[in-house]
Design a protein that fits this description.
Blueprint (H helix, E strand, L loop, with lengths): L3 H14 L2 H9 L14 H7 L3
Helix pairs in contact: 1-2, 1-3
InterPro entries: Ankyrin_rpt (IPR002110), Ankyrin_rpt-contain_sf (IPR036770)
Length: 52
């Protein structure tokens, strides 16, 4: 079973890698799109870092 932390990290990684289908799936599973990591960065920040 996935924990909220696991989904959060997965969403950040998928955004960073530019995996749109994975991002969509994780959002459909209930991951909050505005969640922040320890550095207060959101998945959108990570997508921008890689120009995705």
């Amino acid at each position: 079973m996935s924990t909220p932390g696991t989904l959060r990290v997965s969403l950040m990684w998928a955004a960073y890698q530019g995996h749109a289908l994975s991002v969509d799936l994780l959002l459909c599973l209930g991951t909050k799109p505005n969640t922040e990591d320890d550095a207060a960065l959101t998945p959108l920040h990570w997508a921008v870092v890689r120009a995705n």
